[in-house]
């Protein structure tokens, strides 16, 4: 039996004395922030347990390594605390192992008492509109992986022009805007390879249009992200914000941050950034390569000429995902607790969808880890030895 191979965990339980429990063996599928935070919490709860993290990539940290903008040094530094998991805390990392392909989930569950799925959502959402697959249209996920030298990503076919549209209004879209304003040397200073830095960091005359379907009061970016853009000189900013419709504090802060960019930027700069709010993307047009984008806002239509498009509208479960959420959300599952089946749990974006920052993922990992501990102790009450 699996429990026969487990070590012994002792804990005090009220006035009953010391209760001796077998420590569970734990497998975590995915080594991104959610998976690593879960390993941290479960290591504290079960100091003698065997904990193994399985990852399809050869190296750990997932989104933290390959999905965060390379100039966000503080966020990337979180990986340093995770390194202690493997160097000091005895957590085992098993890379180049995709659960569901290289080893079945059923097989993994037969080897471990507890399995936690933390694979996230790895595919960029598509717009589902005409012209979406023209050359020159790239997803945010692909661009970020390129900038972070993902081993399975390459720059083949990528050509960045001087007239860029960024579709989306979240923090990832603002990341792409900021990175597009960095020159090659600046990108290289953040660890971007020369080839990709030269590809992305051309600083000739450039126009960037940031386009979102929501008005400013429903935009998803943080105002602090906009304030980071203010460090760029020789950039003219414009916006179509209707300030009469600012109704809450968050949207007020966002609009004020953009207004600061607009009012403090030079009028004759070579680089121009236009913010468009409340415009839905109807279609892209062009022969082989994208030449423009058609937009609509209420009864108005607008056509913008572009030669490059970055889409940043969120992430979804890939059709080719080796572990699919739909296959585990029938029967007695309880997603609020991350519970899928006896001994099977999920955490992070796999559980709650593609929302929330890394601090949210940490809180989510704590929430699910507490549920795991509660379930395990309840299950083991009838198998304890009281001394």
Count of alpha and pi helical runs: 14
Q: What is the name of the CATH class of the largest domain? A: Alpha Beta
Strand content: 15-25%
Number of folding domains?
2
Structural class: alpha/beta
State the end-to-end distance: 24 Å
| Helix-residue proportion | 25-40%
Assigned CATH architecture of the largest domain: 3-Layer(aba) Sandwich
Mean pLDDT: 89
Number of strands: 20
Q: CATH-wise, what's the superfamily of the largest domain?
A: NAD(P)-binding Rossmann-like Domain
What does this structure look like?
With 387 residues, the protein is an alpha/beta fold. The protein has two domains: 2-122 and 316-386, 3-Layer(aba) Sandwich (Rossmann fold), CATH 3.40.50; 126-313, FAD/NAD(P)-binding domain. The chain is built from 14 helices and 20 strands. It has helices spanning 2-5, 33-45, 62-66, 73-76, 78-87, 105-111, 140-147, 171-180, 184-189, 194-200, 223-229, 249-263, 349-352, 358-380, and strands at residues 8-12, 18-22, 26-29, 51-54, 92-94, 114-117, 123-124, 137-139, 163-167, 206-212, 235-239, 271-277, 280-285, 292-297, 300-305, 308-311, 315-316, 339-341, 344-346, 385-386. It has a six-stranded mixed sheet, with helices on one face. Helix 2 (33-45) links the parallel strand 3 and strand 4. The radius of gyration is 24 Å and the shape is elongated. The two termini are 24 Å apart. The model is unreliable at 1-18 (pLDDT under 50).
């Amino acid at each position: 039996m699996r429990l026969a191979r487990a070590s012994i965990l002792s804990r005090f339980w009220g006035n009953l004395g010391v209760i001796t429990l077998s420590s569970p063996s734990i497998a975590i599928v995915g080594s991104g922030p959610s998976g690593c935070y879960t390993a941290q919490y479960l290591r504290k709860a079960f100091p003698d347990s065997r904990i193994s993290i399985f990852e399809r990539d050869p190296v750990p940290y997932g989104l933290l390594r390959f999905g965060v903008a390379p100039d966000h040094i503080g966020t990337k530094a979180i990986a340093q605390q995770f390194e202690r998991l493997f160097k000091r805390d005895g957590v085992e990392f098993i890379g180049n192992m995709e659960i569901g392909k290289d080893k079945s989930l059923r097989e993994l569950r037969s080897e471990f008492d507890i399995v936690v799925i933390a694979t996230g959502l790895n595919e960029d959402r598509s717009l589902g509109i005409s012209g979406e697959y023209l050359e020159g249209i790239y997803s945010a996920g692909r661009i970020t992986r390129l900038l972070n030298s993902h081993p399975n990503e390459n720059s083949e076919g990528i050509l960045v022009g001087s007239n860029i549209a960024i579709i989306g209004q979240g923090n990832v879209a603002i990341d792409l805007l900021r990175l597009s304003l960095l020159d090659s040397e600046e990108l290289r200073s953040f660890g971007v390879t020369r080839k990709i830095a030269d590809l992305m960091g051309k600083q000739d005359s450039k126009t960037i249009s940031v386009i979102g379907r929501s008005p400013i009061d429903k935009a998803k970016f943080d105002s602090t992200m906009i304030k980071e853009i203010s460090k760029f000189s020789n950039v003219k900013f414009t916006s179509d914000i209707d300030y009469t419709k600012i109704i809450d504090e968050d949207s007020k802060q966002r609009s004020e941050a953009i207004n600061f960019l607009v009012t403090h930027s030079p009028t004759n700069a070579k680089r121009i950034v236009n913010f468009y709010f409340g415009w839905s993307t109807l279609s892209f047009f062009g022969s082989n390569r994208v030449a423009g984008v058609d937009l609509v806002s209420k009864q108005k239509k607008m056509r913008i000429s572009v030669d490059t498009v970055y889409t940043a509208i969120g992430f979804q479960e890939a059709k080719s995902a080796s572990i699919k959420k739909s296959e585990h959300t029938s029967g007695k599952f309880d997603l609020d607790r991350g519970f899928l089946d006896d001994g099977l749990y999920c955490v992070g974006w796999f559980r709650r969808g593609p929302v929330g920052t890394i601090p949210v993922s940490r809180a989510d990992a704590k929430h699910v880890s507490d549920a795991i501990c509660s379930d395990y102790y309840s299950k083991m009450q009838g198998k304890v030895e009281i001394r």
